[in-house]
Amino acid sequence: MTTVPYAEWRRDAANPAFSEWLRQHSEPDWEAVISHPFAAAITTGKVSDADMRRYLVQDYQFVDSFTALLGAAVASADSFEARVPFGRFLGQTATTEEKTYFHRALAALGASESDMRSPELEQVTIDFRSLMDEARTSLDYPVILAVLCVAEWTYLGWASRATGPAPENFVHREWIELHEGPEFRAWVDFLRGELDRIGPELDEREQLRVLDFFRRATRLELEFFDMAMSGEPAGQSSGESASAS
Ligand SMILES: Cc1ncc(C[n+]2csc(CCO)c2C)c(N)n1
């Protein structure tokens, strides 16, 4: 969509929230992420072990940079009140629940030590890590928020679309559970609320800079799921991932 400056857009917006301006200006990629066939296949438990392993091996490297970015949010937030939720999420979710999930899931999928520690990175993983590094080293709170918010809000988006019975395989089921439910929704609401609090006060140049990061992150979420889908078609897998392609 062509860019309408926030100050102009908000005049006739039904919901004038800054986060809504960012999301709408990231279409059609946003919708493509939250309705992605790979995400839908997770919700129905239909991703093959080889595909799930390739995705989670790459995602473990994503989550490493994401965790560092959470640290930058603690460092760059503008008040003690704002720092606390990042610190809490960093300690409780990112470094405990999520970490143990990755260890259990990757073990169940037969990933090796080197798959976890130093896998060959897909191009999209390299690109996503460098976007997060750029946001982290900027120590620019609104820019950091934009990247964190895309990662969490899009995941809430696909996971909350899950209908039907929860998959039996814990690898699928827990990956959905980690990204929906009241606690995760409250965390996403907090991130959006921070953007809504801070965004309108920025000057137009800075608002467009935040939008640029938000859009690039949304595009990378889409490419990340595309990467996950690019392996061998289900049913023809030799049991090995196609990461060499
Ligand atoms: C490509 C990609 N984008 C977003 C997420 C979502 N996410 C990243 S870190 C984190 C917090 C720790 O639980 C969550 C929910 C992901 N995993 N992979």
TrEMBL record:
EC class of the enzyme, as a word: hydrolase
UniProt keyword ATP-binding present: no
The UniProt record lists the keyword Hydrolase: yes
Record-level GO BP terms: thiamine biosynthetic process; thiamine diphosphate biosynthetic process
GO cellular component term of the entry, any: cytosol
Binding site for substrate: D59, E98, E152
GO molecular function: thiaminase activity
Segments forming domain Thiaminase-2/PQQC: 27-229
Reactions performed catalytically: thiamine + H2O = 5-(2-hydroxyethyl)-4-methylthiazole + 4-amino-5-hydroxymethyl-2-methylpyrimidine + H(+); 4-amino-5-aminomethyl-2-methylpyrimidine + H2O = 4-amino-5-hydroxymethyl-2-methylpyrimidine + NH4(+)
Pathway this chain belongs to: Cofactor biosynthesis; thiamine diphosphate biosynthesis
EC number in record: 3.5.99.2
UniProt xrefs under InterPro entries: Haem_Oase-like_multi-hlx, TenA_E, Thiaminase-2/PQQC, Thiamine_Salvage_TenA
Domain of life: Bacteria
Keywords for this protein: Hydrolase, Thiamine biosynthesis
Residues the record marks as active site: E221 (proton donor)
Family stated for the protein in its record: Belongs to the TenA family.
Function description: Catalyzes an amino-pyrimidine hydrolysis reaction at the C5' of the pyrimidine moiety of thiamine compounds, a reaction that is part of a thiamine salvage pathway. Thus, catalyzes the conversion of 4-amino-5-aminomethyl-2-methylpyrimidine to 4-amino-5-hydroxymethyl-2-methylpyrimidine (HMP).
Protein name: Aminopyrimidine aminohydrolase
Organism: Thermostaphylospora chromogena
